[in-house]
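Quick question about two entries, pasted in order.
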Amino acid sequence: MRFSAEQHLAITHDSCRHLLVSATAGAGKTTVMIERIARGLLTGRVRPDELLVMTFSEKAAAQMGERLGERLQKAAADPVTADAARPLLETIPEATVSTIHAFCNRLVSEFSVDLTGDDGQPLLEPGYGVLDQEEGASMLTEAVRSTLDDLYLLASQSARQVLADSGEPVPETLPFVSETTEPFTLAEPVSLADWLNQFLQMASAFAPGYGDDRLEALLLTMIRQLRSLPQYEDWIRKAVACPLTPAAFVEDPAVQAVFAELDRLASPALRDLEAIFDLPYVARTELPKANKTEKALLASLMVARRVLPDLRHALSLKGPERWDAVHEVGRRLLELKLPARSFSGEKGADLEQFYLLFVKHLMPLIHIISGTIASKTALAAYAPEAEYLFARTVEEQVQDEQVVRPLLLRFLETALLADRRYRAHKLRQNRIDFSDFEHYALRLLSLPDVAETVRARYSEMYLDEYQDTSSIQDAVIRKLGIRRDFMVGDVKQSIYRFRYANPGLFTSKAAAYRTVTAADERPEAESDGDLLLLNTNYRSCPAILNAVNDVFSVLMQNPQGEIVYDDSHRLNPGRTDLTDKEAAELTLVVMPQDTADEEEPGEQPAETFSALDYEAMEAVGKMRGLLDSGYRPEDIVVLGRSHNICAHYYRILRMTGMPVFGADNEKLFNTFELSLIDSLVSLLVNARQDIPLASVMLSVFAPEPFSEDELLRIRNETDRELMFHDAVPAYRQAGTPLAAKVGRFLDRIAGWRRQSHRFSVSELISSILTETGFADYAASLPQASARLSFLTRFLKWLQAADPGDLRTLLAVIAEMRSRGSALKDFQSDNAAGQIRVMTMHAAKGLEFKVVFAAGLAQKFTASTRERLLLSEEQGITTDYFDLKSGRYYRSMRHAHRQQWHADREMQEELRLLYVALTRAEERLIMMAGTNDPEKIRQAVEACFESATEMSFDRQKRVRNPLVLILSALRQNYPRAVDEFFNDATAAVQAGVVTLRQAGSGQAGYMPFVAVQTDNADPVENTDALIARIAAWLDPAVPNRQLAEAPSKLTVSELKRKLDRQLQADEDTAETPPVDMAFAVDRPDAKRRDEAKQLGTALHTVFQFLDLESFRRNPGEADYLDLLQDMTAKAQLDEADAERVKPFYQAVRAFAFSDVADRLTAPGTRVYREMPFTLAKPLPGMPGELTMVQGMIDLWYVTADGNIGLIDYKSDKLTASDPAQLTALYRERYQVQLDYYAEAIEKAMKKKVHWKQIWAIRDGLLLTIT
């Protein structure tokens, strides 16, 4: 094989101890590594037993070993190298080729006698076991819960009283292994009584509300993150060693970053401020005809003109005085109320000119130091990163830190106590988990004798995928101290931050090492480390590489990010055998207008297909064209960011008859055949189960499978009082041929149940599958090869898991279901003849001729604002907490950390997108579906500060891959992207990327999906196709009414069905009404109406409203405090709190209404959010019942025993007077209130006196009956 100059350099370069190779996608890094190892072996530079090769996965390790063996076999066949190669074929198994985990486990096993605890005794016995992921997660959760239980018991009031009298301090250390929960301190001394009191305060602060679920989740996250760090207890002690001081505050990286931003903004902002007064719009505000907002704006600008020059002096100061001086400048500024951003009309052009100058530097500066920008909309649009940071002085913030510090310490100490208990539980069972491999290996390598023994074995180490290494893994590598190491990776493909990969390890080495290229002369002196670049891509055609470069040279240019996509990262084409014609394209599928109609508030949308479904259908048409042109199904892959995107594509591809393989999108036991096995096991464990019994009777497990009609006969010809599982054995005595068939079925089930007591689970299931010919049955179904592959993998898993008995197997299945375990444990790589659907993460390291990058209009997962954050680089921070009010408020340092984390998450999303796009060899097809292309266009434009200048600050706020891609293309090809939005019918070239729209939102649009029927040619785009697809989704079954009758309904569903029934009666008198029990809506959970979100938020406010307290303090500021308190307690999120802020008057009206007087009267008992269930007969189905469920907003019992119920409604209705409004609400909600009243009356044995609705928007109490 001929190697390029850069590849040859990576193979032969040998002038330093440490060699880092930055190998871009498709650069042949594995081939280079294999060749370098082989040449080292053939020349005698290294022996096989001196070789250590570590990879990221077991699969990669196996492939590395196989390819190295193949390379040596090739050398043995070459006369030039045969003599050296043949002996190596015998000794190459002595080389260590494994994952880092496996290597560490080998060290632990070999040196287990040296792995000792505080008492000098070995921690592990020979033959220790390894916990799998599920077992480890359960054991860790139990350790956290038991630790909290012990601490709560210790902190009980009686126990604390005894401890308070003793004043005994807690220890400063804790044992390496401990099952007891003995409090200790990481920092300053504290008495046991104070420790426990602060623990209770911490639990209340970090997990407000009832229950410990939130606190448990925080502790579990903290423990897992800590265990990705080496010597994590020492790291924590160092991080919290010193309380914050004013001097330390101003030296904090967050504070330094704030000052750097102010230094950047100050001079241009002051210059812009002077220029603003020369603008026509500001001059207009001085005229008498200026409105109130314009005059207030002028007054604020005049104050800013007088005050802001003092900022120069403030920024020139040093230490804490600098911060406080800026704080004082901000305090002197007035609130800035900006005019509406409407650039039409007489003032439009002048106002736009003002905004363009004001928002660039002046707006963010003013908001950062004063928080006086009143327009949140303007801030979100023009200064999204600006945050009010100078609200408090340095001393005030230091005091805030002193208040929250004990709570933070108690949280961290609780996490370490739970971690110690988890370790003790594992060691008591002589077991370890995967993270123990690394920690115990590091502990062993800290022993000089062990380290020297291991170090002497190896002379060369090779590490693949170094960008995905965690800090604990890197610590092990450094402790090994092997003489020469060769690390290869691509930081642009680091996509495992959620597994605590640390790409900073790669970038820091790349920055520190000397870059060596093929053009350089060989350095005379050795360096500590050299960086080599492999930037030539031998996978993809030039057009795809150019497209990737065009996108990421823009998106990865933020200096604050982890990568700057410069020439050292640019992809250079290495293949010349591929055509570039339409190699890269982006298709925006616009959803039909008639499926995107607005719904009534609270109503669920009824469309069958989502925008993502239409996108997938359009992709099917493209796939058929590719197959017709000569591509095979296995040449094509669909890559989605999430399992949800993959699931949509998988469903549409299967629905349209395409051969599709997508095992990693299937959840455990969600495939049909494995669900049948699950039903059979359930039946063998417990015969008194109707659904499993019916499933098995209809299946191949029955000697003669029953039909639906036969099951219905059994049901109808037996006592209707019997449950189905009792009716089946009773029918055995009927004396009919069907009864004999039932007898044979029951005998088979009884025989299998007897066998379950003699055989192992795997033996029993294998025997049953063989007896029933289950494999032949699976082979007769569509996608037979995939089904048989799943079945084989399941049986192998079953044999390895050895669950003991059938009941345990069911428990394991239930646990794996609850954790969302995927069928990847049973997955096969055999996708021959099928289009593959997989996540972008799963595609890492793979390549395909055709790649569909799917779901690009689906938003990234938004970064959550955690109360507490740990960062290896940034330390530990938390928001401030007021012990008296129980409220959180923002910490400037914590806000900076949150933004830092959000930026890193955004960088990870970009790298994931890069991985997906670089999998393509010949065709890259980017797909996005939307119902509003205008929003996409506006989002793209919002990324630009001017017509041609993209803003990195705005880009960081984008959560949509499509917007990012189009923004990057617009930076380079503005006319093309503008034409793409303006002309929905044209195919536009943006560089090498072809942009096109499909559908354009027209009513009735349906993509070409070509369903393959059994006896006909493919059916193309017709109304019949829509009906066919709907039929597949909702097939006809015997006795449809009974089959569709739901086992339970909600009151809201009943109300909605009645609304439609009444509407149908009005529209078509000839059409008989559909009984509301039999056609329940199928809700589309993906679409949440804004009105529904507002209604939910308002219900929450009224649910948690303390009437008596609010009546004492009914001001608007008190209302805002109430919302802040609800947000802090996680009762409202921040978005919902913003939604309900305008409803102060509505809440106040309720608080001082007549019904509020009744609720707060002495002796009244009030019940809120009360669930209920009623058993109601199904109309037209004698003897059949359905369960009606609902939630009563509020009901009460007065002192004299009268009962009233209130339902909160936020509908936006138009009525001329209260009587008409009452009639409208009665028509809408009479059914609901009647059910609510019936539930109360059955429970209380007493009539409901008042059935009323509180109309929130109208501030009126309406009596319905």
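Here is the second entry:
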Amino acid sequence: MPDMLHRGRSRRPAIWTALVLSMVGCERAQKPEAPPIDLGFQERAQGAGIAFRMNNLSREQGAERFRINLYDHGSGLAVGDVDNDGRDDIYFLTQHGTNALYRNAGGGSFVDVTTKAGVAVGDRVSVGATFADYDNDGFADLFVSSTRGGNILFHNRGDGTFEDVTAAAGVAHVGHSQTPVFFDYDNDGDLDLFLTNTAHWTTDKFDITSGTYEGKASLPDLMTSPTESNILYRNNGDRTFTDVTAAAGLRGRGWAGDVAVFDYDEDGFMDLFVPSMFGRGQLYRNSGHGTFTDVTAETLGKTSHGAIGTKVFDYDGDGRLDLFVVDMHSDMWMGLDDQATSREAAKEYEHRRFLSSAGPTVDESAPGFVESQRAEFAKHGERYDALLFGNALYRNLGGGKFQESAVSAGLETFWPWGIATGDFDDDGDEDVFITSGMGYPFYYWPNQLMMNNGDGTFRNRAGDLGVEPPTGGVYQEQTIAGRQAARSSRSAAVGDFDGDGRLEIVTNNFNDRPYFFANRLPRRNYVALRLTGSQSNRDAIGALARLWSGNTVMVRQVNPAGGYLAQSSRVLHFGLGDRSKVDSIQIRCGEEPGDQYPAPDSRAGPLSPTISVTSVERSSRYAWIVVALLLPVALLNYLDRQMLATMKASMVSDIPTIANKADWGLILGSFKWSYALLGPIAGYIADRFSRRWVIGASLFVWSVVTWWTGQCTTFNELLTARAFMGVSEAFYFPAALALITEYHLGPTRSRAVGVHQTGIYLGQIIGGFAGYAADAPALGWRWAFSTSGIVGIVYAIPLAALLREPVRTRADDGAPHTPTGVVRGLLGNRNFILLMMCFTLPAIAGWIVRDWMPEILRERFSLSQGRAGVSAILFVQIASLVGALVGGTIADRWVRRTPRGRIFTSAIGMVLFLPALFSVGNASNLGIAIVGLTVFGLGWGFFDSNNMPILSQIARPEWRATGYGIMNLVSISCGGFGDWMFGALRDRNVPLNLIFGMFASFALLSVMLIVMIRPRGDDAVAAASRARRQAGMLDPQ
């Protein structure tokens, strides 16, 4: 099951966890063209126990008068699981009277718990609401926006009751607020609050009867109202917020009623689209440094002039989130039509988008029409050429580019308010429900159920699927001023409220009872994912899930509120239709491309496995402490290896039973072979048990064996000691690197690994000076090993005290956890095989450089043992250190743009091996050899900092240490063979340039292989896009 891990930045990155992954296999049936009503939707609000009624203000849009102002926008609703029972509850809002919270009792029925919960409000006009666990205590809190009544933040006590903490939290605001959304704009793991505000469209005349401020009466007065700023509240992590709107650049242009939160450029930071009720919308790009930039013109182009609701979803099935905006105000070209004189024209032009908000009442072909519109809009500070008058559907082309396509997709509709999306027929394509109609005193206009045809177009099927006409007729039971009052919906939300795998639709209607459309379409296969954080960003808002089945890719995002005064279920629903297999699921959180996992099959007959995954919050500060704690251990692990190479002459002289270079190669090889053979076993143990204790035990054994090495007097003793050292070090690196990738889950993974690897290079640098100790009569090579062993034992004490084990990300989804099952799973992964080969081939050259270069330089350029060791090690390791830090930084940034960013960075490192090895093999003097070694080291740093991060993109979290152990098995076995072969070739006087030329060819082959690795988030999206383009669904790009 996927590793739902938020990629953090700054203080407290959030961790996603999949709590539920359910697959239901149902009877297979082709999607019916027009099923009977009992196989469509059934409106059953009253039968479900929902007795709520939204009450408007009669003195604004009622019997006494009808004023054109935003009171006619009504109130919204929010869906969330307030009691953590796994069922979504519903909160309805109203302008007059009390709001209502309905607890889901299961089986499609609800119970009113408003009074007990303490969220009735009732003393102000309630507008929008959202559930979110802003304090990460595991319970959904509630924010309610209001028109000049003061917004409210309710804290969920966890016992079924809420308390008003608005003032204490620092979010008190009195204004003309609309949709509130919680999202993590700074990737610190705490949900921040963005509040949309409109303008000062009410007067200061207070109506004592309703307890409200009167709204302005005419459209000119309304449109000239002073605009109000949006507000961004940064979560301080202590249940308080700070207003950072000005610093973030999000004050906006006013008249904001809704917001879409999504990472449009996939750089790991959530961006915002804020539509405008009167003017152009704004797409704000998140810089990742606490600021936002308006990029609307260059990214979207024209935006809707009178937009109300907005929503992101993948309408064309290409694996990318598209942006949908509905424009209500541009359809008000008829004015206050209480005689229904415009009804026929509305029917004729409902799917046409005009060139102005005057619609069909003007001749758009008249000479000078466009110029006159430009002049008129300029008077109000608007650019006419930046606007369009109707709905907008922005198809995501990738790379931060969009193409508007609402009309061609069939999503230009009339009098739209809100948007709710979901795969209502479970065929794999997301459909759209659009709340529509003005209500009294206008004529009735139906809601739109736009079913996705699967080819990038939609068809309204509200009539034949039971949504229209409404139960009880198109007019309300009660008249207003003696006249019939048409029904109209304002906001809508979606969720599987009865748990049968089919999405229901619930609406809040203007001055009317709500609709609860129970889904009775034929059951089909589906997947449902509920993501949550263990301690931070528990709502997993912003997490993006992609599911692959063959060449089909589906994408869903955990959304906050949105669609207009509405919040749908956070459960991600994937309809599978008649597909019987899910290949894999990828969860992207923050800046990390996401880890990829196989998913269980969905077969005929009921199948509902529950997948439980637990994770622990990773503090970004402690994540770096982990790296700092492990760096000295990495240093020690390579210190002994380099000392062995640097002090070879002294050791061979002191141990006469080492007869020749082949014997020395055997000593080097014994370490590598034991290291290699135990690699998979060590990795598996690290995956199944505490990595902290594996690391501690490894350091203890290393210390004892290093001390013992200093006491060896024969070839066999040294051979045995080096074999035991292989045992020790085999356990360290898989466990350590897996632990680092558990803590570093976002923009720091390659950098963290790179910093850890600098310990390796520092250990080799220090070991390079060991020759001087060996040459010193008072010290010697035995002193160097014995002292190093004692240092290791001493360091084990603070390591044991400070190193903590995170709760492991683990999924019980049927994936194998036995040794053979894990190995088969890894070796059955094409990407893993390629990575293993790319890990091995350059490493052979690396082992030769590390083990033999001091001896090569000493013999070739007549250097002392000390100078040869420093020359062979110092420059290449300093370059490796720099390469690891630079390569890690480049990879972490590059991967924001493409999942293959780390692969490309590693390939650059391998390319650098080619000139380096040729120059070393053909060096005529020490200077040329050092230059070659420096270039080799730089490339090695690029390569070394990205191996484990790449493995993390293609292997399950609980298989990573095992995977690294298998890679070590192959790589080090070949490295041991390479050491022996190099010694044997040198004994036969084979020229160095030929030997290093052979190694350069290995590096060239590695470059060719590594670019073939394609994390699932790269090739599957492209394959799906190609398949749909070939089917004529997408325009060529």
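Reply: The first strand starts at residue 16 and ends at 24. The domain at 42-359+369-530 is CATH 2.130.10.10 (Methylamine Dehydrogenase; Chain H). Hope that helps.
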